[in-house]
Amino acid sequence: MEAVLSVQSINKHYPGFALENVSFSLAPNRIMGLIGKNGAGKSTTLKAILNMVSPESGNVTMFQKNFYQYEKECKQRIGVVFGGIDFYPLKKLSTITAVTQKFYTDWDEEQYQKYIKRFALNESKKFKELSNGMKVKYLLALALSHHAELLILDEPTSGLDPVSREELLHIFRQIVKNEKCSILFSTHITSDLDRCTDDITYIQNGRVLQSADKDTFLRSFEHLKTPDDSGPLTLEEIMLRTERSEWDDDITV
Ligand SMILES: Nc1ncnc2c1ncn2[C@@H]1O[C@H](COP(=O)(O)OP(=O)(O)OP(=O)(O)O)[C@@H](O)[C@H]1O
């Protein structure tokens, strides 16, 4: 099946950091987790995909179209949530929603009201009056209310309590099952991936270390097992051991 998102050899340089030849693809109705330690390049990858930062080279194909050429058209079909963006802090949620819904031709008010209720959000509050978790939930409600076929989410679960996180992961699974939608989200929380993802892309120092379906991904790190490990390694163990071997290398240099 044709990928909904194909990222091809993206390069982006900052002083002291570079995304190098970042490539991966996401098939329809799949959830992909983007993992990597702090500063590995997860947000920069998502921003480069969305042209929020301009990559020096590389390409992004979304819905079989060149995203950079058909950006406006593609953006109608996606939902995007980035943490830490306090847009319109002094505006009430109802006002922000009124502006947002004008942008989307496929806005679904019933769906929006369903999520507002489910997330227990008060639309008469100002954006800055929301807690971090509530901000994420509100932005998700907006993203989920125009029948997006692809959600791109930067650490959507990081500000959430365990109950809300569980609920959100459940919603992700429901969306992918019931609607024509794929999800790409970055996270630090490896248990999110255990519970929810089909595919995993691991970024280390701006490069894709591995990108595959979860089983293939886990198998490809079996070399990190020691004789003391009876079962398969967890994702947390894989990350810890991969990053630790880097520290060991640093020490011997
Ligand atoms: N606008 C910018 N100018 C210069 N350097 C930047 C800029 N944005 C990001 N960087 C650098 O790029 C690197 C990757 O940052 P990025 O935010 O993509 O990492 P991340 O994997 O999302 O990290 P975290 O898990 O901490 O959010 C970091 O070294 C960061 O300092």
From TrEMBL:
A GO MF label = ATP binding
Highest taxon listed in the record's lineage: Bacteria
Pfam families listed in its UniProt record:
ABC_tran
Q: Which residues form the ABC transporter domain?
A: 5-230
* GTP-binding recorded as keyword: no
PROSITE patterns listed in its UniProt record: ABC_TRANSPORTER_2
Identify the keywords attached in UniProt to this record, alphabetized: ATP-binding, Nucleotide-binding, Transport
**Name the record gives this protein:** ABC transporter ATP-binding protein
